[in-house]
Amino acid sequence: MTMIDSTTMLANLAVVLKRPKYAENIGAAARMCFNMGISRMILVRDEKPNYEDMAKMATHKAVHLIDGMERHTSLEDALAPFSFVVGTTARLGRKRTLERPPRDIIEEIIPLLASNKVAFLFGPEDRGLTNDDLKFCQYTSCIPTAQFASLNLAQAVAIHCYELYYAIVEMSREEAAEPEYASTFQLEGMYRHVQEALLKIDFLDEKSQHYWMKNIRQFLGRVRLSSKEANIIRGICRQFLWYQTTQRDNQNREFDPP
Hints:
The chain is of the alpha/beta class. The chain has helices at residues 6-11, 23-35, 51-67, 75-79, 102-109, 131-134, 153-170, 184-200, 209-223, 227-254; strands at 13-18, 41-44, 70-72, 84-88, 118-122, 139-141.
């Protein structure tokens, strides 16, 4: 068992805001991130929010987070560097995985932070994260409330940042460092090759492929593939597809007239 450096752990964390409607909420989120030692914020939004509105809520202490904030138009691109993504949601439904409170999720995340980048993903104020957004998430976190389940975006960020900071710094936990797990970029590339290979052998068809790929994603998400393991699976699929193409070409040449 080795002591995990809290500075490294905090540096591996990021707060990702997907299409927030109000610039003030972005600024308030930046202020909370700064208060709890999180220095990386990522915005997924087509247009730039009003800078003055963000800076006003961030205050001069945290305005540097607004200045250095990354912006992407694609959620997949924004999450590409991260091995683990925690989706935050108050929505329940038949197709949703079981949500757990932030403290339970963070207890599992802490040992991963020495060697892996982790993102906490927050959806827009009016709709939250969609099922399509949550496909990138290995965990879903739901803040328990007494009555009305929906919280303001900045409030949700504040609660998660506090729980993270408390777990990392105040508790000073000793955990063994975990290996480097596959990033979202690596996993999405692997899933595309798996889908292509399974379509090639008719395990998947056009009607059922989304259903089966969702189950495959859930299964492999629970396995927690390392970066090396994801590359191995992708390599197997590539070799299989190459072999299928080569065999077909050889068969075609055998039947060609001299």
